[in-house]
Design a protein that fits this description.
Elements (H helix, E strand, L loop, with lengths): L1 E6 L5 H8 L4 E6 L12 H8 L4 E2 L7 H9 L4 E5 L7 H4 L6 E5 L11 H7 L4 E8 L9 E8 L6 H25 L31 H10 L6 E6 L6 E12 L10 E3 L4 E4 L4 E9 L5 E2 H7 L7 E2 L1
Parallel strand pairs: 1-2, 1-4, 2-3, 4-5
Antiparallel strand pairs: 5-6, 6-7, 8-9, 8-14, 9-12, 10-11, 11-12, 12-13
Helix pairs in contact: 1-6, 5-6, 5-7
């Protein structure tokens, strides 16, 4: 099958590799152009260069000029993953089979840019991948492939996303074979069950210690590797120190005799009271410093029981 791949971020890289290593013909890898003050090449573009796949970075794939260019390649199918732009009907129409999209959630749950992060943030014990037939709506097309995946309670969003990306590539290849054989079945999404998963910002990393220990642990997991969870240690002597939390564990639940945010122990690991239970801080990174264990942090900084995490 003649395929054009549209992907930008790291979640799409295993899929590009799988397509290149399959019997299908990858005609072109399309990515969004780099943005920001210090633009970096997109992960898919770097992978395409390594794999000797033709690359293209249009400002929009929905312009008449872009659609005409794609049509000249005579693709059978558009395969989309972590691309960053919704494809309009004329764009999807350049391929007789239209487009399919790999999404890292069990749709219609978590439509949007950060499905993996929100599944971890909310403490879900299961997520998965869905391949949909593309429509103009955001992640709204009928499902043509579903793969359920259990979430480890200590897994970070980054670790889970890497697992899903690998499994998702296998799922897409299965769907392509079904499309080629004419055996693909569609399952409509129920719009009433849809939830949104907007892109995370740095503000999502701010820790509210009045939340439960489990909720904060999930927040720490969800914001790894970016934008990361943070708070400030209000020292008895000296200016507050901003801390990034890399790993934590629930010490106790349903028991909090101290004010949320209070440091209640510095033996072995820092233990902080929350709105419900205690949270043990296992890996900490002071602003401008390296990541260290809680034991290293306590040895290097004069942390006192009774001080507050803001």
């Amino acid at each position: 099958m003649r395929i054009i791949m549209l992907g930008t971020g790291p979640f799409a890289v295993p899929l590009l590799r799988a397509l290149v290593n399959s019997p299908h013909d990858v005609l072109l890898a399309v990515s969004r152009p780099p943005r920001g003050r210090k633009p970096l090449p997109a992960p898919v573009q770097l992978a395409a260069e390594e794999l000797a796949v033709s690359r293209w970075l249009p400002e929009t794939v929905n312009s008449a000029e872009a659609q005409a260019h794609l049509a000249t390649l005579r693709p059978d199918l558009l395969v989309v993953c972590d691309y960053g732009e919704i494809l309009k009907p004329p764009t999807l129409a350049v391929a007789p089979l239209g487009g399919i999209n790999l999404h890292g959630s069990l749709l219609p749950k978590y439509r949007g840019a950060a499905p993996v992060q929100w599944a971890v943030f909310n403490g879900d014990d299961e997520t998965g991948n869905t391949v949909i037939q593309m429509t103009p709506g955001l992640d709204a097309g009928p499902c043509v492939g579903i793969d359920r995946v259990a979430i480890d309670p200590d897994e970070t969003a980054g670790q889970l996303e890497a697992r899903l990306a690998t499994r998702g590539a296998e799922l897409v290849l299965q769907v392509i074979e079904q499309l080629a054989a004419g055996t693909c079945h569609t399952i409509p999404q129920d719009p009433a069950q849809a939830t949104k998963a907007p892109r995370l910002t740095k503000e999502h990393g701010h820790i509210d210690w009045s939340r439960s220990a489990l909720a904060i642990k999930n927040q720490v997991r969800a914001l790894q590797p970016w934008p990361r969870a943070y708070c400030s240690w209000l020292r008895t002597a000296g200016e507050p120190v901003r801390l990034i939390l890399h790993r934590s564990q629930v010490i106790a639940e349903n028991y909090t005799p101290a004010t949320p945010g209070t440091i209640v122990s510095t033996s072995g690991e820092m233990v902080v009271a929350t709105g419900n239970g205690f949270l043990g801080l296992q890996e900490i990174q002071p602003a401008g410093k390296r990541v260290m264990t809680a034991a290293e942090f306590v040895r290097g900084y004069p942390v006192q029981v009774g001080e507050i995490m803001s």
